[in-house]
């Protein structure tokens, strides 16, 4: 049975075609960058999951350079992967500096690391200007007026950005 080009199943069929034709190539591309077959496999699957769950998938119907597109999506996931590893390494280094009697339990460490990763993923989902305003307020302690000046936006816009970011934080913590 043929799938109509404009049907909901057409995009899924195109992703299936992309997977069959290019997953092996993408896995190798990632393996060369990661030097780890398991991580390359994970990121290959994550790349195709990203395509399946993307809000706007209409461009996949007319994709002319599938490998360039896949390497762009995978490259962004690779950056997130390295950022997550850096976050984990920094966390472990900070824990190593604590005296043994103050060190948290392994369960507490795992919970905190998972929370940090969830917050990192949440920040990654925010639009750039919202993320920047939120980090300027939270990490640098800048007042909204100063943030507005730095970003060239109104203070009211900064307040909207902060409300959006804080709403996402609440959702992460639920």
Kindly state the number of beta strands.
0
Helix/strand class = mainly alpha
Q: Helix-strand pattern, N to C?
A: HHHHHHH
Number of helices: 7
Q: Helix content range of the residues, please?
A: over 70%
Radius of gyration: 21 Å
Enumerate the spans where pLDDT stays under 50 for 5 or more consecutive residues: none
CA-to-CA gap between the ends?
44 Å
Given the C-alpha coordinates, what overall shape results?
A: globular
Reported for the largest beta sheet, the result is: none
Protein described:
This protein is 77% helix and 0% strand. It contains 7 helices and no strands. The protein has helices at 8-34, 37-53, 66-96, 106-125, 128-139, 144-151, 155-173. Helix 1 crosses helix 3 and helix 3 (66-96) runs antiparallel to helix 4 (106-125). The longest helix has 31 residues, at 66-96. The relative contact order is 0.07.
Features:
174 residues, globular, 7 helices, mainly alpha, 77% helix
Element layout with pairings:
Layout: H1 8-34, H2 37-53, H3 66-96, H4 106-125, H5 128-139, H6 144-151, H7 155-173
How do you describe this structure in short?
77% of the residues lie in helices and 0% in strands. The chain is an all-alpha fold and 174 residues long.
């Amino acid at each position: 049975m043929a799938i109509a080009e404009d049907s909901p199943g057409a995009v899924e069929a195109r992703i299936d075609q992309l997977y069959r034709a290019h997953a092996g190539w993408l896995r190798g591309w990632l393996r060369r960058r990661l030097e780890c077959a398991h991580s390359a496999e994970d990121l290959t699957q994550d790349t195709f999951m990203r395509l399946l769950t993307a809000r706007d998938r209409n461009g996949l119907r007319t994709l002319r350079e599938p490998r360039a597109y896949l390497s762009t999506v995978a490259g962004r996931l690779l950056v997130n992967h390295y950022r997550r590893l850096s976050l984990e390494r920094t966390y472990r280094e900070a824990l190593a500096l604590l005296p043994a009697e103050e060190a948290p339990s392994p369960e507490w460490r795992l919970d905190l690391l998972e929370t940090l990763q969830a917050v990192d993923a949440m920040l990654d989902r925010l639009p750039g200007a919202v993320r920047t305003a939120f980090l300027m307020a939270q990490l640098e302690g800048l007042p909204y007026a100063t943030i507005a000046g730095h970003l060239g936006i109104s203070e009211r816009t900064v307040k909207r950005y902060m409300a959006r970011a804080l709403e996402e934080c609440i959702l992460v913590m639920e």
